[in-house]
Every structure is written in C-alpha cells, then in structure tokens.
C-alpha cells in the first residue's frame, strides 16, 4: 500500500507544480487553492508512505515522479522546448527511479 500512496503523492506533486505555474505567483485564486490542496495531499500521502518505506527511497521516488511529470506537462501543455539534453536528463532521472525501486527491499 505504501507504494500506491507514494505514486499518488508524486502525481499530486505534478498537480501542485502545474497549478502553481498557472497561479502566476499566487495572483489567481483557483489555481492557488488547487496548489495548496494538492500540496497538502501530496505531503500527507508521502508521510503515509514513509511509515514503511525508507526515507531515501520514498523521497527520491516522490521528487522523481514530480520532476518527470512536471517536465512532461511543461512540454505537452506549456510549450516548453524539447532538446536532446533535456530528454537525456529526464531519461537519467527515470533510470535513477527505476534503479532506486529495484534496490528497495520493500
């Protein structure tokens, strides 16, 4: 169950990162509210996952899901540039996440 909590915590991290961008520095109420609610949910689920998962594993996976998710949202919805270097960086983060998961005893 901890891995499910962790995956959803990471997805909520993507939601709050995107909505924070949409809030334009907390100038717009609705995206600001979504940011705060998603942050609380993300941190809460991360805390639940950390009950049984090691800190290093849980935190790395959580931030990695957020990083890769935000990267993809930026490209797909915000028109951010795609370059070989950025794709390679995202690939390396993903590879690190897979290795971290495979090395976890949980």
Automatic annotation (TrEMBL):
- One matching Pfam family is Multi_Drug_Res
Q: Any idea where this protein resides? A: Cell membrane
Q: Which InterPro entries does this chain map to?
A: EmrE-like (IPR037185), Small_drug/metabolite_transptr (IPR000390), Small_multidrug_res (IPR045324)
Its primary localisation, in coarse terms, equals membrane
Q: Which GO terms describe its molecular function?
A: transmembrane transporter activity
**A GO cellular-component term linked to this record:** plasma membrane
For this UniProt record, the keywords arranged alphabetically read as follows:
Cell membrane, Membrane, Plasmid, Transmembrane, Transmembrane helix, Transport
Could you tell me which SUPFAM superfamilies the record lists for this protein? Answer: Multidrug resistance efflux transporter EmrE (SSF103481)
Q: Give an example GO biological process.
A: xenobiotic detoxification by transmembrane export across the plasma membrane
Question: What transmembrane ranges does the database entry give?
Answer: 33-50, 57-78, 84-102
Q: How is it placed in the membrane, per its record?
A: Multi-pass membrane protein
Q: Which family does it belong to?
A: Belongs to the drug/metabolite transporter (DMT) superfamily. Small multidrug resistance (SMR) (TC 2.A.7.1) family. Gdx/SugE subfamily.
This chain belongs to the protein called Guanidinium exporter
Q: Which organism is it from?
A: Runella rosea
